[in-house]
Structures are given as C-alpha cells and as structure tokens.
What we know:
Elements: H1 4-16, E1 24-28, E2 41-42, E3 52-53, E4 57-60, E5 70-77, E6 91-95, E7 107-110, E8 114-117, E9 120-123, E10 133-134, E11 145-147, H2 155-163, E12 168-172, E13 176-182, E14 186-187, E15 198-199, H3 201-212, E16 216-223, H4 227-237, E17 242-246, H5 257-263, E18 267-270, E19 275-276, E20 282-286, E21 289-294, H6 298-316, E22 326-331, E23 335-336, E24 342-352, E25 355-360, H7 369-373, E26 377-381, E27 387-388, E28 393-398
Parallel strand pairs: 5-6, 13-16, 13-17, 14-15, 17-21, 19-24, 22-25
Antiparallel strand pairs: 1-12, 2-11, 3-10, 4-6, 4-7, 5-9, 8-9, 18-20, 20-21, 22-28, 23-27, 24-25, 24-26, 26-28
Helix pairs in contact: 1-6, 3-6, 4-5
The structure holds adenosine monophosphate and magnesium ion.
The site of adenosine monophosphate has 18 residues, from helix 3.
Amino acid sequence: MLTYEQARQTVVDHLQTKKGPRATTVVNVWEALGYVLAQPVRTDREYPPFDRSTRDGYAVRAADAAQGSDLRCVGEIKAGDTVTAPLARWTCVQIMTGAALPSGADAVVMIEHTHREGDKVRFDRDARIGQNFVPRGNEAKSGEVVLTPGTRLGYAEMALAAQVGQTELLCAAKPRTAILSTGDEVVLVNQKPGPFQIRNSNSVSLAAQTKLVGGEPVLLGNAPDRLEPLRAKIERGLKEDVLVMSGGVSMGKYDLVETVLRDLGAEFYFDAVSIRPGKPAVFGRCRDTFFFGLPGNPVSTMVTFELFVTPAIDLLNGAEARALPLVQARLGDALKEKPGLAHFLPARVAWQGSTPEVKPVKWQGSGDLAALAHANCFLVVPPDREELAAGETVSILLRKDIV
Ligand code: AMP
Ligand code: MG
C-alpha cells in the first residue's frame, strides 16, 4: 500500500503528462482570485516611475547635508506633485513619503533627524547617498515580466497586475471538476431524509474544496448503489476535466465504483493508501479523464480531497502542484494511536505568541463531521508512532479555508 506521500506523488506524476496547451479565459482583475495565469504580465513603465521617497523628511544633496550643517528649505513636495525644478546646491526641500525627489537630490533625511527654524534646517547626522528613497526602476524595469504563466493569483498578484495596468488577464479556464456522490442512503441536502437516510453533505464540502483550490465544480448529484445508474453517472462525469466521487470504494457488497470503472476500461494507479481516515481512496484514469474515488465518510472525503485532488487541480490549471502545507506545532496533550497507518486527526491549533500548540478534538471517527467543524487543522501522526508525549513537535495540516 502506498504512503500518502507516494500516493500524492503518483497523482502529480500522472497529471504532469496532462500539461500542455489548455483552455483559457479572459478574467477581469477584480474576479481573478484563485485563477492561474496563462500569460506573462509585464510592467507598462519603470517601477517606481520616479525616485520615490520612503520617508517624511528633507530631500538633499548628501554632500551638502553633513552633521551640523544648515540648509535653506526652498519648498515642499508631496505625493503626486509634479516635480520639475532641480535641487540647487546648499538647499533642501521638504518631502513626503511617496513623493518624487527633485533632480540633483541623492538622499532623504528623516524629519526626526533634523531641526527647523523658519526656512533653515539643521541636520543632526551625516546624510548618506541613496538613503531613504527607491531609485526609479529599482523595483522593475519597463516591460519586465513581473508575473509568469502558471502563477496562482492571490491578492498580491492581483494588485500587482492592477498596478501595471493589466486589468484583463488571460487565465487557465478553471478545471471542470465533476462531483458525484454514491449511496442508496443519500438524499439531496434540501430534502428531508427518511429515518435511515442522510443528506448529501459531501456534495457541499467537495464543491467548496474544489472552489478553494481553483476548480469549477460540476454537480452531478448522487448515484444509487446499482450498476446501471452508477455507470451512467460515471460516464457523464468522465466528460469533464476530472471526476471526483465519494463513497462506494470500500469492501462492501454495494461498493460498486471500482467495478463500474473497471468495466469501462479504467486504469487504476492506486486503490488504497495507508492513511486513516481515507484508506480506500482510489485514483486512476478512464477514457482519458482522471478520476478519484474518495471514501464516503465525510472526514475521509475531506482529508483525501486535500491530499490527492488538490495537486491534480493545480496541474490541470497549468500551475505547479502546491506542496502539502505541513507546519510544526507543539503537541498539547499526550496521545495514543494504533500504529500502521498515518493518522490525520481533526485538531485545533492555537497560537501562544508565535508558537502553535495543537490538541486533537474528541471525535467518533471518520463519520463525525461535527468534530471536524470544531477543528482548524489535522494532526498528522506518523504510521510508526504509537504514543506521542505532550510537548513533542508534531506536523499539522492547516485547514486553509479557515486558518
Ligand atoms: P461508503 O464510503 O460508501 O461506504 O460510505 C461510508 C459512509 O459515509 C456512509 O455510510 C455514509 O454514512 C457516509 N456518506 C456516504 N456518502 C455521503 C455523502 N454524500 N454525504 C455525507 N455522508 C456520506
Ligand atoms: Mg456507500
């Protein structure tokens, strides 16, 4: 059985082969959050476009502003002012943060290091050439590529595109992610379940997880545990960029997902991973579409999506597969787990100062959705560890939707 790291790598290796020209779409910068760029973004001019002061103070010629010297202040420049007059010798100009230095000035002295009487400014210390301003063009040259194709767009990348005037961005069309649940017990979330039925909560979480990582959910509803209707739904799902199913992949008599896929000629790259929850997770390819069969218990579905589907959507977007964002934390309470599988336990991390401390939440196993809703991370217990002591350093996987 593969470890979760090996299973993840398997997904990456297979999806890499899908890289290549992809469908693109033009997205307005305001709407671009979570899209992946399919074009380079270049600057429209130098950045900064002028020598830009980083302090409130006085623009000087450093040679004239030695410690103890007096210079005559001949005016002021605020951010946005047009600056044309050069700075004459033995003068200075009051300048604000973000304003342009006059030509001839080669330093800005912070106001805190000066004394002023009338138009006379005295300097408390020597000015150094280049201090407290960013020279024109030092952040980027004109026409320089500041964002490359494959970049995932977050708020900083969107703002940078906006800064250089690129308000329409060619992006990868979000991979259409078919979401299909299975199970005779499952009813629509807006339906009242019978006494032995459950609502299709996985369709909600899978759609949210898909959106969060940059996919476009295509909701296919639920298939009953019967070969014919299940096959029809799966064939429908295989028409999308990727198919994500929940349920029907365990060893039960009515777990038919693998049977149907095999009949359709699927190749399987794994059909179990040594993790708990999530062990029966399946990944393969059928009719040129990759599919995931995730176990149906809600926490299993969520963990296995996080681990295996996320990198697939990244690669279908033309981005690099993101690394699993594990971080280290101090374990709050001692812990005992059955060895053999890597555990992803719903847990809560809190920060005392900068040190994260994590404690597992009480849970009743992988069907306990309420436990996960009280958690903000998963505590990763390695497969070879049976007992962990309080105070040990452990890995956690943050729930990036809420942390
Ligand atoms: P399965 O993986 O098909 O054996 O499903 C395991 C359990 O997960 C089922 O008994 C249900 O309790 C639960 N489950 C399956 N599908 C869903 C779903 N779509 N939404 C919420 N819970 C589900
Ligand atoms: Mg089932």
